[in-house]
Specification:
This protein is α/β, with parallel strands linked by helices. It folds into 2 domains: 154 residues, 3-Layer(aba) Sandwich (Rossmann fold); 117 residues, no CATH class. It contains 10 helices and 9 strands. Helix 2 packs parallel to helix 3. The longest helix has 24 residues.
Length: 288
């Protein structure tokens, strides 16, 4: 029997993951009282049980201590029950934004401040997150990308990529991305904005890509960037880092940064040792 415990930050995508795993053939149980967890596991583990794939959802609630949940999981391990832990996470600002958009009350925001609830929950879940077999950050993950990742791990039994790398383009005029780990400024490259026939196009258009990449500086920059990233990523994985955001910025985030981000993504793709996604933050931003 495959037994998966799904937990994580409120707003991190736990409910969505449960629905996706249910669609994939798992028997899913959510918000089971902690006092019943051990008995539930005993029943589904009986030799004559017809259930072969089970998901149990656990989260922070005001009516139960999460320390009780971790204690029960520890006892199950000691008794020889095998299970995997999937931790759904997201950046603090993303979690706050999701809660404010949904107008829901955070389970630990006793005074009504979502920010305090998110930080308190992060502290409560710190221990189980460290013990998780899989950590999926949904900050910039599309629904279809989350489904693909869950299918790869729990349906196709593929190798789990502990590090998810996001290559992001942005415009400095709109601010540096708050969640960026590595920031590179490519405003030193020739700017297509001043070429009439390229001004209204973006780095997703072939004409702009050819214009930017034909400069010697672009090729040299990309060569040095790839060399550094190939050195950094194995060390990040060794250190236990699960998310890396590489941000490449130009003035408006439409031409040079998009071109270089596309090129970097193309060269990093299919490496196998990490997950990879591409995100153009400001390519459609029409603000002055």
């Amino acid at each position: 029997m495959r037994f998966v415990v799904v937990t994580g930050m409120s707003g991190g995508g736990k409910s969505t993951a449960l629905k996706m795993l249910e669609d994939a053939g798992f028997y899913c149980v959510d918000n089971l009282p902690i006092s019943l967890v051990e008995k539930f596991v005993e029943l589904i583990s009986m030799p004559n049980s017809e259930i072969s794939k089970v998901v149990l959802g656990l989260d922070v609630r005001t009516d139960q201590s999460f320390s009780d949940a971790t204690r029960v999981l520890r006892q199950l391990k000691e008794k020889g029950y095998q299970f995997e832990i999937l931790f759904m996470d997201a950046d603090e600002k993303v979690l706050i934004k999701r809660y404010k958009e949904s107008r829901r009350v955070h389970p630990l925001a006793l005074d009504g401040r979502v920010e305090d609830g998110v930080r308190a929950e992060r502290k409560v879940l710190e221990g189980i997150r460290k013990k998780a077999d899989y950590v999926i950050d949904t900050s910039h993950l599309l629904t279809r990308e989350l489904k693909a990742e869950l299918d790869r791990i729990f349906v196709e039994n593929g190798e789990y990529n502990s590090l998810m790398v996001t290559v992001m383009s942005f415009g400095f005029k709109y601010g540096i991305p708050a969640d960026a780990d590595l920031v590179f400024d490519v405003r030193f490259l020739p700017n297509p904005f001043y070429i009439d026939e390229l001004k209204q196009k973006t780095g997703n258009d072939r004409e702009v890509q050819d214009y930017v990449m034909k400069s010697e500086e672009s090729g040299e920059f990309m060569h040095r960037l790839i060399d550094m990233i190939q050195f950094l990523i194995p060390n990040y994985i060794k250190e236990g880092k699960y998310r890396l955001v590489i941000a490449i910025g130009c003035t408006g985030g439409k031409h040079r940064s998009v071109t270089l981000a596309n090129e970097l993504y193309k060269r990093m793709k299919d490496q196998g040792t990490y997950g990879l996604k591409l995100y153009h933050r400001d390519v459609d931003n029409h603000s002055i």
